[in-house]
Amino acid sequence: MIRTQTPLGRLWVWAVWLLVGFFIVNLLGLIATVVVNSFSTRWFTTWLPVGFTTRWYLSAWEEFQLPDILMATFEVVGAVVLLSGLLGVPAAYAMARRDFPGKRFVMLLFLLPMLVPPITFGIPLATVLYQAGLAGEVWGVILANLVPTVPFVILVMIPFIQQIDPRVEQAARVFGAGTLRMFTNVLVPLLLPGILAALLLVLVRTIAMFELTFLTAGPTSQTLVVALYYAVFAAGVRAGQSVDAMAVIYMITTLAWLLLALRFVNPTQIVTRAKR
Amino acid sequence: MRQALARRGFDGVTLLLLPAVLFVIALFIYPFFYGLDLSFHPKTGGVGLANYIRFFSDPFLYDTIGKTLMLAVPVTLLNVAFSVPVALRVRLMAKPRLLTTILVIPITLGTVLVAEGMLNYFGPRGWLNRALLEFGLSDAPLHLIHNYWGVFLSLVITGFPFTFLLTLSYVTGIDPALERAGAMLGARAWERFKLIILPLLLPGLAITFCLSFVQAFSVFPSAVLLGAPAGVTRVISVAAYTAAFEEYDYPMASAIAMIMASVQIGIVAALLGAQSLLYRGPAGGGKG
Question: From B261, which residue of chain A is nearest by alpha-carbon distance?
């Protein structure tokens, strides 16, 4: 490692850390205001609220019909996680183990839905789903959310599968295992950490996926993040504390899963997709 | 026949790809072409470019491209410019995990929650303005929400961590031995950066810029919640959303979505085209 010696160089290092510190202080302040406000009785012109209470959580629970919304969120997220695993892992296996003409084209096909922003492809997708009568239903939301997550699972899983020695599979074949048997008895147990990591990331991304859910959800298929958007959008109709109480519930749901996911993956993996 | 196919790589295992490929074709490729086709069938009837002509003749519509670029380009430049020095420092840290974990939080929470937090925090009575007034750094509260700066700041808060983590993954791919070699030969910090690191980093930075730009260009929830969605921050996605879900003019909405996609593809293609002029060799040290 090279040490910075010159005074100007030291100043520069300080400036960089100061910048990072400033960013993080503001970020944490931003999150803390939401939490503090959700517990406050009244909060206008002081640093901290006049008093603290938990009643906003009760009122948010009833006003926003949170039981229904949480139910819909779990349905959507659960189905997306399960289906993207079922569609993605076998496809990743084929991508990792076989070379065939047009493989680059297939790879591009999987990269595109992750590179194109959801709002761009979401509008034509929502139009198609409305034509098919699926939008507004839970199934429409699930299908829309699968579009970026299936390629995501494939790209995350490819390097995991490439790490497994193909001779293990050959041995299974020699002993007479079919493809299905080989998957359930050999590959899935070996790949479990990778599958877990990929699916946890899918879970976190789906809870926070606003655009696709927003464009395809109906009144009965809103997830937490879309309900939060409507609550913030209609601010003034309800007490701000009540909206913040809901924001805290959303935050806890997301961060709990993020912390679990971070036990298995590196934070950089959340933005950088699999190595190509 | 079966063996001939298997030799080229098509066998039972390759067929496992089929469900995923069909899924992406049905729900990504097909809707795209469906939308493209729909955009040529205006609501008023007939076939033609009427939607596109309307878009480019109505300032309320075509201005959205400029307004979106006014947000997306400066924000992306700022995020990339800050990411590089920070990533170069973080690379030297022994345990960057806590820092990267904190930075992953805004990405995970998403723009809607960040918007709600910003409404509290950057508001006229929020902690930031309170601190500025208290320390005498400002005479009056700064107007940071419900205008251009609200959307700008939200794009920095969610965009900077994304850009930074992406840059970090490219920076850590550069062999530190190359910089040590430079230092040993007497290059100073700035020279090492300019002559060794930057040329190796530029291809990765181009990709980082593309991905960050495309994200910023499709800004939606924060433009509505934190900006002035009828004025300065009426970005292109707001126009597309209004056409689809408030005017129920799906052909027009598809046309706007296609225009949005072509601006994004245009800028990305230009950058990646320029990238091919750059050095594209190994960023590792050693022989060969």
Answer: A120
